[in-house]
Amino acid sequence: MITYHGYSKIRLLNEVFGSREDISVKKKSGMSWIRYILTISAAILIIVCIALSYIDYEIMDQAKNLYNKPIEWDSSTLISFNTVQRTKPKPFFIKHPIAKDLQCAQMYGDNSKEYIQNWILPNKNVSYARSRIQYQDEKDLKMDCDSINNRSYFPVEPRTDFEAKFPLAFVRIVYTDYLFLEMELAASYTPQNSYCYMIDKKADKIFRDRIHNLTKCFPNVIATTREYDVDSAGHNVWPAFIECLYALQKFEWRYAMTLQNHDILAKTNYEIAQIFTWFNGANDVEVLNPKMDRIDTNLNWTFEGLNLFRNASKNLIGAHGLPPKLNWAKGYAESSLSREMVNFMLIELNLTTLMRQIEVKSFGIDEIMLPTLQATDALDAPGGFTHACLDKGKEIFHITRYSRWYDNTNCPTQYFRHAICIFGVEDLESLTKIPSLFINKFIPTFDFGALTCWYERLFNRTYLEEPTEEKLDKNFYLSIPYVRFQYEKLKSNGNFDPQKFNCTG
């Protein structure tokens, strides 16, 4: 018999209402019909409570057994953690209301020029045509997780098994244009990847709060608590990147990309993973001739003076029995680094003194440290390169970021920022043909329509087309000098001579 706190159902009924004989007597004594009805109602209520109590007990008992089971998961990915948070929605792409009338499909292809001209050139003024859609973050933008997930599609499982086994990390310094960054996250988001934001000190409180709110909605999206004062001269760029790379050590990933606020995804996640697979551990770091006015040559740049290796014995003797020194190079701070290279930088090297000495100069200092580490032969960095090509007059460009520097003949918008062309809808078709991973830059306050149509295309290629490497030029990526260098070095069994490397292919 079911009991409720030690009482049987019959005993409870008898105590509350009396026995059948008692009820009969009360009837005969003139009990009112109203009281009788209330009494019967109370009896029914208590029976229902007892039944619900029993059902609740059974459910709780089953739940207890369920949660006592050990959780089984594949430690090679983060999928199990990222898929339990949300139900699986169907892929969707929603334009912002101010861009809802854009026919993005007509922005691409052979016939796109006429549509674009009719859209943005009614006044024959390319840079400031009234029809160009411009957007600034709304003050009342909803920031709860449901609103974020309703604005953009964030998948809860990897698109393919290949991508699941090749997680990526995105490191980005941010300070403005929150909604753009949310759209950019959605374009690259997949639960096996990890994302770290370093908030620039110049960001306002609303922006800062929004980034932190965003991180609460996804377990693989984080923001560092420490902030740096980053400027256009490059100060604190690499200390900020290093802060994020440290924070990302708890996640599993194969390559990390270092990015700035307005770097825009150019390839699908599948394509980036495929390109890095071809790289086979090589780092994508630009290696150009340095401008020595950006380096204080009066400082001690030997490994020993920098205390560069944590193992002090490696700082003492290099090639030819002399103390090893850095081989200078420069290049974009935006780069793609293998996990082995990042571990080398964070665990084997001590970059504190190196970064501090580089920071003393006043311009372009973010372009010095990583290319120099990449090109210093004495370091033998994982996935690294050589200085021999620069010594032979051959500069090595990278593919992480694509920009067009000041050139009136090659910037259709005729709009520049820090000497870099700002792209608009008239650039969309040409940008589909570049081999780079990211584009710099689109700005929402200049042409939000271009951003919208670019992200719509990425969405369609990610979710409405079958993932394939056919649209990638495999031979191009394999012929990049630092990729060839990596393959030749791995095949040499320790007998590789960088001086004999063919820099031109």
Helix proportion? 25-40%
Query: Strand order across the biggest sheet?
Result: 5-4-3-6-8
Distance between the termini: 87 Å
Roughly how many Å is the radius of gyration? Answer: 31 Å
- The number of distinct β-strands equals 12
Strand content: 5-15%
Q: Give average pLDDT, whole number.
A: 86
Please sum up the structure shown.
Helices cover 39% and strands 8% of the residues. The radius of gyration is 31 Å and the shape is globular. The protein is built from 20 helices and 12 strands.
Overview of this protein structure:
The protein is α/β, with parallel strands linked by helices. It folds into three domains: 3-67; 97-279 and 401-435 and 442-472, no CATH class; 292-399 and 478-500, no CATH class. It is built from 20 helices and twelve strands. The protein has a five-stranded mixed beta sheet, with helices on both faces. A three-stranded mixed beta sheet has the order 7-12-9. The protein has a two-stranded antiparallel ribbon with strand order 1-2. α1 (9-17) packs antiparallel against α3 (33-67). The longest helix is centred in the first third of the chain and has 35 residues, at 33-67. The chain is globular. It starts with a strand and ends in a 14-residue tail after the last helix.
